[in-house]
Design goal:
Layout: E1 12-13, H1 22-26, H2 30-37, E2 42-47, H3 54-65, E3 70-76, E4 81-86, H4 92-101, E5 107-109, H5 117-148, H6 153-174, H7 176-187, H8 194-213, H9 221-244, H10 248-254, E6 259-264, E7 267-272, E8 281-284, E9 293-298, E10 301-304, E11 315-317, E12 322-323, E13 328-329, E14 334-340, H11 346-361, H12 367-393, H13 398-411, H14 415-435, E15 437-439, H15 444-448, E16 453-456, H16 458-462, E17 463-469, H17 477-487, H18 493-504, E18 513-518, E19 522-527, E20 530-535, E21 548-553, E22 560-568, H19 572-581, E23 585-589, H20 594-604, E24 608-610, H21 615-627, E25 632-635, H22 642-647, E26 650-654, H23 659-664, E27 667-669, H24 676-710, H25 716-735
Length: 738
Amino acid sequence: MTITGERFEVEAPRGGGISACPACIAAPSAERLAAMAAPADARIMLSLPEAHCAICISTVEQAVAAMPGVRSARLNLTLKRLSVEADPQITAADLIPVINGVGYEAHELDPGLLSTTETERQGRDLLMRLGVAFFSMMNVMLLSVAVWSGAEGATRDLFHWISGAIAIPTVIFSGQPFFKSAWRSLKAGRLGMDVPISLALILATSISLYETVRSGHHAYFDAAVMLAFFLLLGRYLDHRTRAIARSAAQELAALEVPRALVIEAGAEILKPISEVATGDLVLVRPGGRMPVDGVVVSGASEIDRSLLTGESLPVPAAEGTVVSAGEVNLTGPLTLRVTAAGKDSSLHRMADLVAVAEAAKTRYTSLAERAASWYSPLVHILSFSAFGFWMWKTGGDLRYAINISAAVLIITCPCALGLAVPAVVTAASGQLFRKGLLIKHGTALERLAEVDCVVFDKTGTLTLGTPEPANLSDHPDAAIEVALALASASSHPLARALAEGARARGLRPARVEDIREMPGHGIEGRWKGRRVRLGRAEWCGTEGVAETATYLATGEGAPRAFTFIDRLRPGAAEVVGALRQSGHQVVLLSGDTPAVVGALARRLGIEDWSAQVLPAEKAARVADLKDAGRKVLMVGDGLNDTAALAAAHVSISPATALDAARVASDIVLLGRDMAPIADALRISRQARRRIVENFGISAGYNVIAVPLALAGHATPLAAALAMSLSSITVSLNALRLK
């Protein structure tokens, strides 16, 4: 359920120094003393999950920048984050209503916990080296064509020198990721896959330089640069699949409210959470997120628990109600007695659950990674064996032996092996993207093909999390018009849904006076001289029904119950039916009430369902299914699902999910329709077959090519061309998915 007006109270100072001459430092002026004493500007980071286009950028930035005290506002559309520089008195509570006012949901994040600078820097570095290698490869290949066409003597030597002038700096620059990795491997006393790659690059370049100096007929600068380009391309694709999946635990931690209003001696003091102790009194205003776990000691309100428990509707809060960090206070101020804060809070414990589950998932290794354990040593043994054999065979011809050794290193380069999985994932990802699914993790398709059990969340996943009236036609128009007048004065989700349904029938509100909202109960007013109420059953003087409902008491007969159902997400019934037909076990886990969850399960034909499931229990249920030998696909959208998403064999979340849920998942459902989930399972099985075929192609290539290189029938250039051909073949096989 989307609740507007969420507030966080985070204020991150932006440090800055003051430069001056030594004399000024020795004798600071009054102006300098005032500047040094002035508080630093506030740097506020907000998450805008609904921002998606250039118009969103201009709308949000202009609205925020127009606020007095705001110095700058920049919206990053990729991360969907708004960074605001403002005067120190400006807080997120001031900005969020402005952003809500222009139509966007906003949540504050702690900028200190969201650093992705290193990952972004690595990506830019790889992309820059890849671009240099591509540019050089194209130019060196043009020069090589001239040599292949029959250039002789001084012309050939000139082209070789020009090629060397381009290729040598390129190999030194673009090969840095491989050289550094190989050096680290050697220092650690092991042979990683980057060791033979680095040797191949160095040998191909060295032999080419030697041939150029000696006016030889063959130089292999094109082979060295081509090798660097293809290897960097594979490395960059791998980096992108990993970099997208930022830590969900980090995102969860960023949602923790770092400060709280503590009541001491009747005064409200804003304190960091680290200074809040068990037993303190904390005030939470309407629209604010609970900064701590605690018990309500005064006040009455309603609480949105959808982030933590999945409950689709707000629950009443009064004296004695237990609340948890991360829940949102909706309608009235609450004073809490702290029971847990900081690292002991429920929200922080949930982040720990996600971190543990994510660490477990990283132990999954692809077929290519498992093959690397024996591939690299074998390559070196073959290359050095070839060198020794041909040194003996030719009577000490060092040049010839090195050529063959380099050819073996190049022809056995793991480029095709490295592309076997990414090439298929890229092709399958493109196909699924057109169907509305975004693959985030490189091994997600491989794991999805193994799924035999699918676990669904309810609110926001199988349903849209928005109630709609189910029985308006059972009530007379006069009663609906009174209900419309009362509902229009409230922001409660049921009231809004009732008002929308009544207006859709063409009805207008009745003339109701003296309307006021009673937090935790409902709305009341006067109609035709009588008191009328719309709200909870007991407040309206009646017994509640089993379904989700709100009640209207007009003084004429018994109170009327307006019932609601949660709107199904498009394609939900179809995907559940397809999964059951294909033999998959389907499970529904929700934090909502048994009546609501049971009704939805019967509606969709799901036999295995559980209600009022807490986040830790969801993760435990997924773990139990895995222990029973099931390969679990988890589909969820809320903070309460993140631990289960991270713990599952593979996971999917809708694009409307919270940032933390999308981050924890392997696949994102971009549209509203859930039908593509069934397509994903089918395509994943096809992709697995293509991956196995690609490993077969790579193995077959080595069986044929390696003996030719060992026998001296392949020059380093021919080896580079053969290596490239194997990579192209693997890519073409992957494209068969389309």
